[in-house]
Amino acid sequence: MSAPGSGPDERNGAGRGGEDGRPPRSQAPLVQVPSAPLVQGPESPRVDLSPAADAVAALLGLDPETQEGPCPLPGHHGRARLAAGIPEDETGELRLLCCSGRWRSLGEVYAAIAYGFDNGGRPAREGGRSNIELAVWTRRLGCDVGAFWPPAVAVPPVPSGASPATERVWAGFRLLIGIRWADGPRVPVAYSARFAAAWCGVSRGAAHAAIRFLVERGVIREVERRGRLPLYLPGPMPDGAVEPDARAAEEEALVARFIEAFDAEELPADSSEDGEVRP
């Protein structure tokens, strides 16, 4: 497979320079296996996206056959491609060779697309996304290309008459809980309006209203706070409801497919509600 037109030096994963002529900042250390609580040990599920590379390429707007094309990161204008097994990454994960000449994790890329901006791949200590969030977005990408199936999790049904945005935010929470609980303790998860807007493809105001609606109806419940950030668990299941069986996981993949609805025009409503972005 030929290299992208930007001509990065693939021997060491570094490019010859960005569009402004400056050398790109290195990405050492590359994001490796996501840290706890998403990954507990060698038996924990990992997302191997390499067998689904053609589907990943198509989802990112690259040519499924060559796995090359316009860089999918927001604000980037060069060429990019997918590759696995680069020397710097002992896990052999599929990654994006960005037009700036840097290898980027696909969770990082998928998050940037959803949020609509690229934070440059900064590590968490410099204000970037944590390993936990990168793992969440990697698993989300795996769900969307059929490479990862989260377990079925019991969440009360969305009340009848809920808005389409609320239905999306409910489905997004259900998917997030399944992803977070796939291999870790069933701890509360953060679900801010800012994160939910990116995760579910709705406006931030619509996400804020939907979360408030779901809390008021007991579908989700706030159990603690970390600073200003509320953490949620599913509400109690209605009387007579049946807990999901592990065999229902494939059926629950329908929840993961709700991203297909993102092709529709973004739902209205907006607000200035503020929130953190750590699922």
How many DSSP E strands? 7
Number of helices: 7
Whole-angstrom Rg: 19 Å
Listing every helix as H and every strand as E from the N terminus to the C terminus, the arrangement reads HEEEEHHHEHHEEH
Largest sheet: 4 strands, antiparallel
CATH topology of the domain at 164-263: Arc Repressor Mutant, subunit A
The coarse overall form would be elongated
CATH homologous superfamily title of the domain at 164-263: Winged helix-like DNA-binding domain superfamily/Winged helix DNA-binding domain
For the largest beta sheet, what order do the strands appear in spatially? 1-2-3-4
Concise structural overview:
With 279 residues, the protein is an alpha+beta fold. Helix content is 28%, strand content 10%. The strands form two sheets. A four-stranded antiparallel sheet has the order 1-2-3-4.
Can you describe this structure?
- The strands form two sheets. A four-stranded antiparallel sheet has the order 1-2-3-4. It has a three-stranded antiparallel sheet with strand order 5-7-6, with helices on one face.
- Among the domains are: 50-144, no CATH class; 164-263, Arc Repressor Mutant, subunit A.
- Helix 5 packs across helix 6 (204-216).
- It has helices at 53-59, 106-115, 131-144, 164-180, 193-200, 204-216, 249-256, and strands spanning 68-70, 79-83, 95-97, 103-105, 189-190, 220-226, 229-234.
- The protein is elongated, with a radius of gyration of 19 Å.
- It is α+β, with helices and mostly antiparallel strands.
- The longest helix is centred in the middle third of the chain and has 17 residues, at 164-180.
